[in-house]
Each structure stands twice: as structure tokens, then as C-alpha cells.
Design goal:
By secondary structure, the protein is of the alpha/beta class. It has two domains: 239 residues, TIM Barrel (Alpha-Beta Barrel); 45 residues, no CATH class. Helices cover 49% and strands 11% of the residues. It is built from 13 helices and eight strands. It has an eight-stranded parallel beta sheet, sandwiched between helices. Helix 5 links the parallel strand 3 and strand 4. Helix 7 runs parallel beside helix 8. The chain is globular and about 65 Å long. The two termini are 35 Å apart.
């Protein structure tokens, strides 16, 4: 029987408490998010792309869905996946929704950037498709989903886009909600400033997601330093950290292997290593596997 994690996600979005959705980029990181105690996780394109060996704007639908399937089946919390611009036109959007839904994902972000995604987006130069074209994509997404509880979050990059701004972001957000989107993602990566963030939360007529990427072009320090409590007080219903796990993992791996090259040792504390190894084995349900071997007499 399939789990209706979309329904669970909707319940969490409309709850009184701000829904925290930390980043995962594979099954292990997703299990850590769940084990620590979070109720949902965000599977972003940036983390998946670099893990597979290329940048996000070169990521394909099937690559993203394959990772999403492994992540979704490894945990019991809702996973929200990055679906870019639906990987093409409204027609491609329909296949995108069906693939993610079949993979067990609870909901997706779909954005009003051009597709194929442009590399200059990562330098802070953003262009958006027309609101009218995005509305058609949203309607195509809604028509394609089989489970009415599958969550469609419409993301607008218009806040910092060429010829955009906070008023344009608010306008588009409300148009996208009127078109049937379940929620809005108006500040990708924490772009903008605190004044913009507050105005967006107040004037968007539906649940909105705040996002913090630790560092991104167009982000002010005051936006990046906001606490969970401050973001909740502004009126946001979701908080995403879309690249945190990738940054932390890359830094840790770089440091330990640099130490190995420079000093001839990894420098990992043996007691700590044992603790982490045991923790990871627990996340992989090793004890359950050992019990199966014992039950069926395949220990030898």
C-alpha cells in the first residue's frame, strides 16, 4: 500500500509550527534528517547535481527522479524535490509530475525560470518566463498528478530577475496561487533583504517557503542570519536549507583528505570514528539484517 506522504506534507504546511525542511542529497543524508527529528526534507537540484558529477543546470529529469526514488523509499518523512521548470514545456511538466509522484516524492518545486536552466543563474543573472506561461505549466502539473494531495509549490525567481522586483514577485505568487498552486517559494536561496522578505510573507495570499543557502549572490547578511523564530513571525510556513548538507560534507571531506596528504594520517579521532560508524550502521538497519541471518541460519 502506497503511503500518502503528500497529505502528511499538506498537514505539516498548514500546521501552526514552521515546517523545517533541511537538505538531503542521497538516501544516507535523508535518513540523518529523519533520525535527527525533522518532519520533512528538501531534495535540491544543486546537491544532487554535484553529487552526480555535474552542475545543477545540466541535471536531467531521470537523474533527479532516480535519486528521489532512492531517497523516498529510505525514509518515512515527506520529501519535497526540485523539479526545475518541469524540464521543458507544459507537456514535459506533465511527465515530470508523474515521474516524481511514481517515485514516492510528496511534492515538488516548479519554477518560472527558462528551461534549459542557464548557467548564468549562478552568477545572480536571472531571467523568468512570462507569468502567463508559468500559469499554463502549473495547470498542466495539476492535471497530471494522480494524487490530489501531491503538493505543487510554485517558485518564482522574479524577486532578483531582470525587470523583476518584490512587487513582481508578489504579483506572480498570487497569480500562481490563483492558478491552483498549493504553496509559493518566493525567495530562492534567501535572495533579497529582510524588508523584501517581510513584505512577501505579508502580501502573498497563501503558504510561502523561506529559503537559506548560507551564501548566494543577492543575499544580504540580515536575511541569511534570520532565526527560525524570526522567519516564523514574518508569516512563512516552510523553511528550506537547500545546500547546507552539501557544503558541510564537502568541507569535511576536503579537510580530512588534505590532512592525509599533508600529514600522512586522516586525523580522525578513533573513538569518534567508531561512534559515527555505529550510527551509520544503525541508519542502515544492520541489526535487522543480522536478525534475518540468524533466523534463516545463514550466519556461517
Amino acid at each position: 500500500m502506497k503511503r500518502n506522504l503528500g497529505k502528511k506534507l499538506k498537514t505539516l504546511i498548514y500546521a501552526d509550527e514552521l515546517l523545517l525542511m533541511p537538505q538531503c542529497y542521497d538516501a544516507l543524508s535523508a535518513r540523518i534528517v529523519e533520525n535527527v527529528g525533522f518532519k520533512a526534507a528538501n531534495l535540491g537540484g544543486f546537491g544532487v547535481g554535484v553529487t552526480l558529477g555535474h552542475a545543477e543546470h545540466l541535471l536531467s529529469l531521470t537523474e533527479m527522479v532516480d535519486v528521489g526514488r532512492n531517497v523516498a523509499k529510505s525514509v518515512d518523512i515527506p520529501i519535497v524535490a526540485d523539479a526545475d521548470g518541469g524540464f521543458g514545456s507544459a507537456l514535459h511538466m506533465q511527465r515530470t509530475i508523474q515521474e516524481f509522484e511514481d517515485a514516492g516524492i510528496a511534492g515538488v518545486y516548479i519554477e518560472d525560470q527558462y528551461y534549459p536552466k542557464r548557467a548564468h543563474y549562478f552568477k545572480g543573472i536571472k531571467h523568468t518566463i512570462s507569468a502567463e506561461e508559468m500559469i499554463l505549466k502549473i495547470k498542466a502539473a495539476l492535471e497530471a498528478r494522480q494524487n490530489p494531495d501531491f503538493v505543487i509549490i510554485a517558485r518564482t525567481d522574479s524577486l532578483l530577475a531582470v525587470e523583476g522586483g518584490v512587487d513582481e514577485a508578489i504579483k506572480r505568487a498570487n497569480l500562481y496561487l490563483n492558478a491552483g498552486a498549493d504553496a509559493i517559494f518566493p525567495m530562492p536561496g534567501g535572495a533579497g533583504n529582510l524588508e523584501d522578505a517581510s513584505k512577501l510573507a505579508k502580501e502573498i495570499n497563501g503558504p510561502a517557503c523561506y529559503s537559506i543557502s548560507e551564501y548566494k549572490i543577492g543575499c544580504s547578511d540580515e536575511v541569511m542570519d534570520c532565526s527560525v523564530e524570526e522567519i516564523s513571525k514574518m508569516g512563512y510556513k516552510m523553511l528550506s536549507h537547500p545546500i547546507t548538507a552539501t557544503l558541510v560534507a564537502a568541507d569535511a571531506i576536503r579537510n580530512v583528505y588534505k590532512n592525509l596528504l599533508d600529514c600522512g594520517r586522516t586525523g580522525i579521532n578513533r573513538v569518534k570514528a567508531k561512534e559515527i560508524r555505529n550510527y551509520v550502521q544503525q541508519l542502515k538497519n544492520l541489526d535487522d539484517h543480522l536478525e534475518v541471518e540468524k533466523k534463516y541460519n545463514i550466519e556461517k
